[in-house]
Design goal:
With about 350 residues, the chain is an alpha/beta fold. The chain has a single domain, classed as Alpha/Beta hydrolase fold, catalytic domain (Rossmann fold). The mean pLDDT is about 90.
Length: about 350
């Protein structure tokens, strides 16, 4: 009878090499840090986008020119936007839509805005001054530094087209309002697309079909925008967000100023809805452009301003009017050097007015 061995074999658990365990631990730490940074970025972005804008200043009725209160829906057909419509005494040349900066309202320069309204009216232009979402009297849960407001700009153009007697519009943006204006322009089909599609041209019909339904339902394309006036433009809307982050002077500002803009874009629904850069839509456009800025800009990066201004002058100098103040500041040309600011505006607007 065979003798059974009393020795049993105990299985041993194979251990991962030390290097693999270290790499796994390091990756876990990195993943945790990334999650924490993302949570912090979205928290800060949410706080930034919910920051209340300046309320409308109280004023007596004789300060402003005669106006008509207006209310219209943004492109989502839910967000109500409020403003004023001014009309000149004589038949108008065109309508200028004022697009204010983040944190401001239809009175971009406070009660001094009345002087700008009168200047434009005296040159024969209608003026639409309105509050973007989450500004002034308008609705809106979140402000988007231009990444959401471009829809408000398109809605303002739609309102003017349906209610004003003018044949086109000019967009006059300030700070983030320049971003909203350029992004609005970029969302529209190229000039002549709608007419070509209406004439049954297959290529135009195919091009138009590629746009979202809310854009296709608009009865205008880029050709309806007669001119662009941009006070303190930057090469990207992200720069305005970074400026607000830097101003908070918190310990995480240097890191999050490059991440919070992405969080704002995601919250605004702008991811996959066009680029963040503003240089291309400005330089590609053939329409006349007015650019105003400070040579010693504060808050935003002077390099960002120089990048978009220089590129426009390189490619479209003949149709570009420049006003640059030597006074340090941000959107301060009208306030710091009003006489020369309005003189440059006159130089830009006169050919448009005389062409009618």
């Amino acid at each position: 009878m065979p003798i059974k061995s009393s020795i049993s074999h105990v299985g041993t658990k194979r251990r991962l090499p030390e290097r693999i365990r270290l790499i796994a631990a390091l990756l876990s730490v990195i993943a945790l840090i990334m999650i924490l940074v993302a949570v912090l970025a979205f928290t800060r972005a949410n706080r930034l986008m919910r920051r209340p804008a300046a309320p409308l200043e109280t004023f007596s009725s004789n300060i402003l020119p005669s106006f008509t209160p207006v209310c219209f829906l943004s492109l989502d057909n839910q967000t109500r936007l409020y403003g004023w419509f001014f009309a000149p005494k004589d038949p108008p040349v065109s309508t200028i839509i004022l697009v204010h900066d983040q944190g401001r309202n239809r009175l971009q320069f406070g009660l001094d805005s009345a002087d700008l309204y009168r200047f434009l009216l005296d040159r024969g232009f209608c003026v639409l001054a309105f509050d973007l979402r989450r500004s002034g009297e308008s609705d809106g849960e979140l402000a988007g530094f231009g990444y959401a407001e471009w829809a408000d700009v398109l809605a303002a153009i739609r309102y003017v087209r349906q209610n004003a007697s003018t044949r086109d519009v000019l967009l006059f943006g300030f700070g983030t309002g320049t971003a909203a204006s350029l992004l609005a322009l970029e969302q529209l089909p190229p000039p002549g697309t709608l007419r070509a599609a209406a004439d049954g041209q297959p290529e135009a019909e195919k091009k138009l079909a590629a746009y979202p339904e809310d854009i296709r339902n608009l009865d205008f394309d880029q050709g309806y925008i007669r001119g662009l006036l941009l006070d303190t433009p930057c090469s990207s809307a992200d720069e305005y967000i970074r400026a607000h982050v830097r101003e908070n002077r918190q310990w995480d500002g240097q890191l999050l100023q490059h991440i919070i803009p992405l969080a704002v874009r995601i919250a605004s629904g702008h991811v996959g809805n066009g680029s963040t850069g503003l240089v291309t839509p400005l330089t590609r456009s053939q329409i006349p452009v007015f650019l105003a800025y400070s040579q010693e800009a504060t808050r935003v990066s002077p390099e960002s301003i120089a990048r978009i201004v220089d590129e426009r002058l390189r490619l479209q100098a003949d149709t570009t009017t420049i006003f640059a103040t030597a006074e340090p500041g941000y959107i301060n040309g009208f306030s710091a050097d009003r006489e020369n600011y309005l003189k440059a505006l006159e130089e830009y607007l006169e050919p448009i007015a005389s062409a009618r």
